[in-house]
Amino acid sequence: MKRILVTGGAGFLGSHLCDRLLADGNDVICLDNLFTGSKDNIRHLLANPYFEFIRYDVTEPIRLEVDQIYNLACPASPVHYQYNPIKTAKTSVLGAMNMLGLAKRTKARILQASTSEVYGDPKVHPQPESYWGSVNPIGIRSCYDEGKRLAETLFFDYHRQNGVDIRVIRIFNTYGPRMNPSDGRVVSNFIVQALRGEDITVYGEGIQTRSFCYVDDLIDGMVRMMEAEDFTGPVNLGNPGEFTMLELAEKVIRLTGSNSRIVHESLPSDDPAQRRPVIDMAREKLGWYPTVGLEEGLQRTIAYFREIL
Ligand code: NAD
Ligand code: UDP
Asked: How far is the CA of 74 from the centre of ligand 1 (A)?
């Protein structure tokens, strides 16, 4: 039995990861400051003797004995990471340093939840891992993008300088049950608006694209990466299906049977125009590829939001 630390474990992805790691027979420590996460996401685990929750902030050092660390702590929705951008940068950078220090002391393997945002507003399309990105260093998304980029740098420097056993994944837009209904990300926004009969808010003309991965696929890729030998990454994990925001809005309206209308609101600055992963490396090194298509994943997510709203 491994003892595994999941930072950000009470969040959307982290709580699904805790479920998976417990189902695989591990002992799980979930560390979270509950900024965007919630005890509701892990309530079903609190009575499990192999699960512990620690309310704590990754910007502070912590002493624990662990075999593996998944570092997910960081707000992921633009609305939340821009709420206190200085804190976002601290969470990303000091959080990475603290967790890397812990990995160094305990000789734990450590996986970083990096992001497609390291590619910024990409000039290369679709994005392979070899692309260095096009990121505005002083814009409203920079606290997150540059924070995640520096975290990647720290991971590779701890690896080269101290021999820390690192894994880096670059996650592309992932959605599914337990997304916070008010976190402002596009899939949850559109579904909540459609189910409430409110206007669907498409930012800009809605011709910007994203590639959406269902949460179960992503968690499977994340665990495969942690278990892979002799492979640090960075590796893209995402679903290469690419859709405009207008296409997404139309799908959500059709699948919910909603009467909502599409309205256009202003496009936030530095909003990437296009995004789609090249996943050849994940296929080759991890034998991983997504299996849940957008409509099927949306149906499962809609069922979840119908239940909680
Ligand atoms: P989320 O907001 O649901 O989860 C983040 C969790 O981290 C929350 O539970 C939050 O309370 C916690 N947290 C934030 N700051 C913290 C701090 N200082 N100390 C301790 N805990 C803190 O978001 P998510 O979608 O589950 O994202 C999880 C990770 O995956 C993030 O690092 C995010 O950058 C990364 N990621 C997610 C996506 C996606 O599409 N979901 C895409 C790329 C990267
Ligand atoms: N978006 C939108 N309406 C919304 C929320 C988001 O049109 O209510 C757009 C947003 O401008 C971006 C895309 O959807 O182009 C994805 O936004 P999200 O915040 O989910 O993630 P991002 O990939 O931008 O970090």
From this structure: 4
Is 81 contained in some domain? yes
First and final C-alpha spacing in the chain: 38
18 part of a folded domain? yes
Which of 201, 208, 196 has the alpha carbon at shortest distance from 186?
201
- Say whether pTM exceeds 0.70: yes
Q: Is residue 245 part of a domain?
A: no
Total domain count, the chain: 1
What is the domain extent for residue 225?
3-175+214-238+277-290
Residue 190 main-chain phi, psi, to 5 deg: -65, -40
Rounded CA-CA distance 218/172 in Å is 9
User: 96-119, pLDDT tens digit by residue?
Assistant: 999 999 999 999 999 999 999 999
Answer yes or no: is the C-beta of 186 below 6 A from any ligand 2 atom: yes
List 70, 81, 144, 158, catalytic entry: 144
Active site residue 144: yes
